[in-house]
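Known limitations

Files may contain more than one protein. Parsers should not assume a single record per file. Below, a two-record file is shown to illustrate correct handling: read the sequence, read the token line, then continue until end of file.
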Amino acid sequence: MPCPSNLDRPTAAASASAERLRIGGFVPLTTIDYPGELAAVIFLQGCPWRCRYCQNGALIDPSATPVIDWSQIREFLERRRGLLDAVVFSGGEPTLQSALPAAMSEVRGLGFKVGLHTAGPAPRRLARLLPLLDWVALDIKALPEDYPTITGIPRSGAAAWQSLSLVQASGVPLEVRTTAMPHWTASDLATLAALLAQQGVRRYAVQACETRNALDPLIPPPAIPLAQLAAAIDPASFEEFLLRGH
């Protein structure tokens, strides 16, 4: 566990700012959301996109009533020093909350590593967070021009791919994730993977599309098993290549 420096210790004003965090869910212990670390996960309210396969539809509305206060999270983490390694901020889309930097600073001040799950819709906000981060999982959903068919938002792909470049330039350890759309062919996925490898992505995870409870009730189940879909990807293109789901 990292030892907090004076720069990591939050001011009283920062602690008050963190209290504004709108939290839609909390997992006190996970072994799968931060590679190699025991972590807690905080799910934040609000997302600007409407991804068809989204499984966290309840987190989209930024004005939804929080299910837990930041003060309760802080108290939990104070009791878990030496037992947990890291805290991951997820969503929804966590980068949209203005209180997030203050909350991350508090987590670092308590001695935990800080992870972030993001889809990258707000590159400028992400850039300001990078000095506070020890690890990032970034969703790259498709080629830039294909994003609107997934998110429902024009030009959303440009923001996500800009976020990819920012994280890579920062040197913060990165995992890129893609959820394979049900209609994709092996060639579609291989083209995306090849571009990511060309961009220098080292750790890449491809996830099966879970359509039960999806935001779009009309999205069909995958036509091709994930392993078959990913067969055209050269695993040697990445230092780590992972398949998640079936």
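...continuing to the second record:
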Amino acid sequence: MSALSKLNKKRALSGLSLLCATVALNACVTQPPSFGGGIDFREARYNEISAMREYRECRDHALELDGEAQAKHDPAKYLASARMIEKCEAKLGPDVADIALDERMRAYALTVQNHLKGGDLESARENLDKFSANFQGRDLYFADGSSFVQTMEVLLGKRGAGAIGRYSDANVNNELKAELRRVRYWERN
């Protein structure tokens, strides 16, 4: 083989190697990163934090009213506190419906109790139904282990009056059960 032929082969191999390397490197190059997803996430997170901050400020004001109602035994302030918490919850949009559930459950449970303490039994029943629907079967428990939902159902008359064992299967405080049975007995006798 001539020197010229060897040189052409060498150039052809070099060119082919360079072409393969270029193709391989082009395959490795990725698209420039998209920062839109990160910005959208940060914006959504900022909106969630802002909404919860506003909710907590509103709720804290309602809790102050609740404290005043307890100190003065004022039914009107119980009702005002309950309505304020309802407004706080209503201001939250669907974007933040799954945030701080335990905190929001405790606040909404207070609306049920405060409507009851304020004498508005119909609103208390409606809020208990909303509580069960919005928090999908979740419950709160008092210090003695009794169920908030079942206790409110008993107090608000949502359990059937003629049901056998009306209170026996409910996770309700024993003293409350005994008192309700005593009242029921004297209503009938």
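Parsers that stop after the first record will miss the second one. For reference, the second record is described as follows. The helical segments are 3-28, 36-72, 75-91, 101-118, 121-134, 148-155, 174-188.
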